[in-house]
Amino acid sequence: MGKLWAGAFLVLGLAVAAQGVPVITGLNGPMGLLFAPDGRLYVVEYGLGGDTEVEAINPETGEKVLARMGATSRVLRLEPDGALEEVARFPSVAFGQESSGASRLAWLGGLLVTSGGWNQASMDPMPLMAVVARVGPQGPEKVADLWAFEKAQNPDGYHLDSHPYGLTVGGDGYVYVTDAGANALLRVNPSTGAVRLVATFAGLPGPFANPARGGAQEMDPVPTAVVVKNGVFYVSLLSGGPFLKGAAKVVKVEGGKVSDYAAGATMLTDLQEGPDGQLYAVRFAETGERGPIPGTGAVLRVRPGGFEVVVDGLAFPTALAITPSGDLYVTVNGVGAPGSGAVWKFAGAVR
């Protein structure tokens, strides 16, 4: 399990989007959206763990805890008649209010999925944890093992932790992954599974010494999504706990060098390119003294240097998909009560 949502669960309560219409409801931790080439919408949910007890490490305390595991993380497809078709299942691990499962989707001759996280150096990962997988006729199949890369290379130099999250396919045919645990942007060869480092991300200024970063007064950057435009990578950073207001940003990676592109946001969970060529980010929530504030999620237009609100009043949104006509589809209640997750549509929000 990775540290993506560690500490984000202090004041989470059920809320609903202020605008738009629901197109899918009853989800458990929706994390990713994708329109396939045939126009059908896919959604992936973290799931609820399961009945099998496994040993895990709490990413906040480093202590061993018992977690619950089961194949409850699902990839679902919305059919033209409104029915939901289950496409694949992945392992889901839960302890307390935290869970981890399949996260994001991409298309390369078929469906690609980032799945799970791992941070236990003394144990081999459970199947389909901390991997990029392909959904084949017989179910999910591992394409690349990102935990093996983290264990061998540890690019940020801190605790071993891999949580492959953001996912996209570049024009060069390679698959690009933001590893939210390793704080790195990685390139995956989809034919061989070979993993190569593109960039690591520096810590963000924090309010106190962080033992997970060698005692530095820093928060983890926690990269959550990547967009490739003309050979340049744009990456959204969530920021680690305590999720300070204004600490999140979008950075640019060019020639292996990382620079700020737009700063001053809070808890960015996704980044997509719209049909207008602009970048759009998802803000999970604004934060206060007790953590994320319900009903303050938003879709933001990313401008060089800053952000503009496109849709706000959202309930803990995590992912975004945009149609060629400018309709926004957003997952809400990505963290929340079982069955509270949904996908909402905002028609013509991008023009």
Description:
- The protein is mainly β and 351 residues long.
- It has a domain at 29-273: Neuraminidase (6 Propeller), CATH 2.120.10.
- The protein contains one helix and 30 strands.
- It has one helix at 146-153, and strands at 21-27, 30-35, 41-45, 52-57, 64-78, 84-95, 98-100, 102-107, 111-115, 131-136, 139-145, 164-169, 175-179, 184-188, 195-200, 204-210, 216-219, 223-229, 232-237, 248-254, 257-265, 268-273, 279-283, 287-288, 291-292, 297-303, 306-314, 319-322, 328-332, 341-346.
- The strands form eight sheets. Strands 2, 3, 4, 5, 6 and 7 form a six-stranded antiparallel beta sheet that branches. The protein has a four-stranded antiparallel beta sheet with strand order 1-30-29-28, with no helix packed on it. Strands 8-9-10-11 form a four-stranded antiparallel beta sheet.
- A hairpin with a 6-residue loop joins strand 4 and strand 5.
- The chain is globular.
CATH architecture call of the domain at 29-273: 6 Propeller
Total beta-strand segments: 30
* Biggest sheet architecture: 6 strands, antiparallel
Q: Tell me the number of helical segments per DSSP (H or I, 4 or more residues long).
A: 1
Helical content class? under 10%
Multimeric state of these chains?
single chain
The radius of gyration over CA amounts to 18 Å
User: What name does CATH use for the topology of the domain at 29-273?
Assistant: Neuraminidase
Shape, please? globular
β-sheet strand percentage: over 45%
Low-confidence stretches are 9-18
Mean pLDDT level: 92
Query: Kindly, what is the distance between the CA atoms of the first and last residues, rounded to a whole number of angstroms?
Result: 39 Å
Structural class, please?
A: mainly beta
CATH classification class of the domain at 29-273: Mainly Beta
InterPro entries: 6-blade_b-propeller_TolB-like (IPR011042), ScyD/ScyE-like (IPR048031)
Organism: Thermus brockianus
Protein name: NHL repeat protein
